[in-house]
């Protein structure tokens, strides 16, 4: 199989499917018709030569044109070449490549949560629940709670004593707090604070809808 590229380069692949062999050939236009070829046998490169009989620049020249060789419509030939020089079957991605970009649970944890610089050191590998809760609450959490109450109160007044408006704002504020803790403050979110706003807002909305 052969073709002439837009820049005048001539590329060719000779193959023998029975013997599982292929010759990848490149003739560079404008470089005194310099030619380069490689012999691939059973998936391994066994010989590289240029028109001077040496192996210099063969891999470089073929690799630069790998994208063109990869368009060969015969998958058997691409299988013989066995991904040498970056020549691949674009229609069949390996499993590892398909999984690229997917974050593992550990990567997610490292991305969104900082490691504790002073881990609990005791006979029990888990901290008591009360100690963990108190360690997670700080001044900024109190500010979040106060600000959320002010937002709910403001919505209640602005929308003419509407508990539904106050509840809606409260729920959204709880969701925003989770985003702020993870993405902006880069710490583990205080779920107690978030749950209070979510359930509190839902209660205000339902009570305002049915009873107020």
Keywords:
single chain, 212 residues, alpha+beta, five-stranded antiparallel beta sheet, 5 strands, 15% strand, rod-shaped
How many strand units? Answer: 5
Helix count? 9
Strand neighbour order, sheet with most strands: 1-2-3-4-5
Shape: rod-shaped
List the helices and strands in order.
Answer: EEEEEHHHHHHHHH
Overall mean pLDDT score?
Answer: 79
Give start-end ranges of low-pLDDT stretches.
100-105, 111-136
Strand content: 5-15%
Sheet/helix structural class: alpha+beta
- Tally of distinct domains: 2
- How far the N terminus sits from the C terminus, by CA atoms, comes to 80 Å
Oligomer type: single chain
Most strands sheet: 5 strands, antiparallel
Radius of gyration: 33 Å
Fraction of residues in helices?
40-55%
What is this structure, in a nutshell?
With 212 residues, the chain is α+β, with helices and mostly antiparallel strands.
């Amino acid at each position: 199989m052969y073709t002439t590229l837009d820049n005048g380069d001539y590329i060719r692949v000779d193959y023998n499917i029975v013997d599982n062999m292929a010759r990848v050939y490149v003739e560079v236009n404008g470089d005194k018709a310099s030619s380069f070829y490689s012999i691939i046998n059973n998936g391994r490169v066994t010989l590289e030569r240029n028109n001077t009989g040496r192996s210099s620049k063969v891999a470089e020249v073929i690799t630069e044109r790998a994208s063109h060789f990869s368009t060969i419509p015969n998958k058997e030939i691409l299988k013989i070449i066995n991904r040498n020089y970056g020549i691949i079957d674009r229609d069949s991605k390996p499993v590892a490549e398909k999984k690229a970009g997917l974050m593992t649970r550990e990567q997610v944890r490292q991305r969104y949560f900082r490691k504790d610089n002073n881990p609990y050191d005791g006979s029990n590998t888990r901290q008591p629940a009360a100690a963990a809760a108190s360690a997670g609450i700080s001044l900024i959490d109190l500010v979040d709670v106060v600000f959320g109450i002010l937002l709910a109160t403001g919505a209640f007044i602005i929308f003419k004593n509407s508990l539904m408006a106050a509840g809606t704002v409260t729920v959204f504020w709880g969701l925003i707090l989770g985003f702020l803790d993870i993405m902006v403050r880069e710490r583990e979110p205080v779920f107690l604070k978030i749950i209070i706003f979510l359930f509190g807002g839902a209660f205000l909305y339902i009570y305002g809808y049915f009873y107020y």
